[in-house]
Design goal:
MetI-like fold, 12 helices, about 0% strand
Amino acid sequence: MIPDLLQRYGLKLLEGLLVTAELVSISFVLGMMLAIPIALARLSKSRILGALSFAYVYFFRGTPLLAQLFLIYYGAGQFVGPLKAIGLWVFLRDALNCALLAFTLNTAAYQAEIFRGAIRSVARGQWEAARALGLHSLPLWWKVILPQAAIVALRPIGNELILLIKASAVSSIVTVLDLMGETRRAFSRSYDLTIYLYAAVLYLILVEAIRRVWNRLDARLTRHLLREARPTAAVAADVTIAAH
């Protein structure tokens, strides 16, 4: 038996869920593409690059996502003329695009710090061994450092994705009809709080699906590490059993 409320607004909630998934997935991927050069700039010896990347990360991690969204959404309306002159108004006049830009810039700052920490966690011996083999900078980063850093960053990046999914609800404040936007509209017509319970369940299902996928990805990429990290006692027990 489908409750009347869910029968009336269930399809709209699913449409909002698709908008949320689209918004989060695009901004997350674009943020990752932006985060890697920012992380490298943070690690560079150039004071200018280091200062600019630090200022970027400091601002977007130190201010609320809602404030950043308002600055882009309402701030763009204050500069319609200049934005039209350079062709950006076509993009920024859409609330969904403003939310996409705000989420991309925000998650890039957090992912940059994750990648920076992961890169710094790579043992110094790996760098020295790669240089001893005569690897240049690009192969050194692409074949030695980044693959190892990616494994370290995998779990924190998954957590950032889940946090971004939950934070995406703020986009409804600027008229984006994502899952929370459709929920607010349904509540304004029905005045039934149960609709928020249905929305919470859909968010929970989305987060749980991401968690399971990420766990499988982590287990697959780190299966060689799990074998190497087996306790010595367990290895000794295997040897004993094999001897008998």
